[in-house]
Amino acid sequence: MIPTTFVQWVAVxxxxxxxxxxxxxxxxxxxxxxxxxxxNREQDDSGGDxxxxxxxxxxxxxxxxxxxKASAVRDVRAFADSLYKxxxxxxxxxxxxxxxxxxxxxDALHNLISED
Length: 116
Hints:
The chain is mostly helical. Helices cover 49% and strands 0% of the residues. It contains three helices and no strands.
């Protein structure tokens, strides 16, 4: 037999140094804590004054759909179509067409949210 020597290779793996963190939460400037439990994201924080233009526009469109039925659907589709044309003109870098499409979109939106 031939004498053999076994050399054992040991890989040295650097260990992560232990760390410790202390987090202190201070109350907000109104005295209440600003953590995930107190954010109230699901609630309407407008205070009931309905000052949000986007909410007013959507509610107006929904009411228009309820009241005018099929003609309101035609108006909503005309508005959506004008937005598609606006995007297409912008992507084509046809800025004259962008202006025309913006005018058409404004008119279509006005028809949707006006209270006539």
